[in-house]
Specification:
Mean pLDDT: 94
CATH superfamily: Aldolase class I
Protein name: Radical SAM protein
InterPro entries: Aldolase_TIM, Radical_SAM_PqqE_MftC-like, rSAM_sf
Number of strands: 13
Distance between the termini: 43 Å
Helix content: 25-40%
Largest sheet: 10 strands, mixed
Strand content: 15-25%
CATH architecture: Alpha-Beta Barrel
Organism: Alkalibacter rhizosphaerae
Length: 363
Amino acid sequence: MSLLRIFDQNGFVSSFETTNGDYFRSGILNAHGEDTGVDPFMASFPHLLDIGIMGHCTHGLEGRCQQAGTQCYQMGASVKQPNMTLEDYSKIIQQCRGKVYQVALGGRGDPDMHESFHEILSLTREADIVPNLTTSGYGLTSDNADAIAAYCGAAAVSYYKTTYMERAIDMLASRGVTTNLHFVLGNNSIDEAIRMLSTNTIPPGIDRVVFLLHKPVGYGTLERVLQKNDPRVPQFFHLLTQPDIASKTGFDSCCVPGIVTFAKDVSPETFDSCESGRFSAYIGPDLVMRPCSFDQTGSYDVDLKQHGIQEGWFGQAFDSFRRHAMTACPDCTDRSMCMGGCPICPEINLCHNIKPDIRRSAQ
């Protein structure tokens, strides 16, 4: 058991338990060190970094994503770029030492297929940072599964309903890895999600099913975006209020407006609004940092070949992105829980109060 703790210059304390992934963040502290109960708006450095070490995807280039019916937002079936070099990754990690709790390894492809995978995991742990990753399982080897068990806090397997998905779950779970299932929740998959939760047919070996809201980015189409007036939406979110189901599920922050709107029995202490640009950031294989990997406009990009992470974090691009969370939906009583939802893809916000032109108002 190892507990990491950071006192942030913005006036709060955070801690991270490296063995089970528990993350705690206090409210703003007063002059006597007492918690005021006011949530901090942002950290002085990201606590979580999503690092896209993969520039190309074997799974996508071989047509496997298309066969599985997935719509990759990174466009892995047609875009082929170099992976992040070990040298560049090392430079990132050195800037993060003592500031970042964990990194999520990803990008355009399975991180376990990176040519320096073992070195990346080892280097991360040596800096007292916990690596996590998501994989399709397509190219997962026993050797790499051993490395994941030795270094990673958790791993997720994408829900592709393939034999290699099942094999990857077994390989990881049998080694004691906390293994989650990443399920993209969209208009095309919500029926299956409801059925899986209602009938308790979660694949064996899975700790939690984590629902990721479909976004119309990359190959992602508008047709698969869930609509707030779809009767299946409140049905799905109501399931998350049942304790036996809640203990087996999780969701990304893109789902939070839906939680706030349709699952009011879920305690606000158990979820957080979008942390992009406030407590987390994405760095691509080209060393471009942005608040969120789903932003492909370039509006908030920071070139880490020219600037440091700290400089970019407090720079104009990130400040511009954070303006949305600071000002959106000022008259809404639930504002503090979702901060206006997603400024990148307003179409996905499952809230009756969020205006459709929210993206323009954030820039």
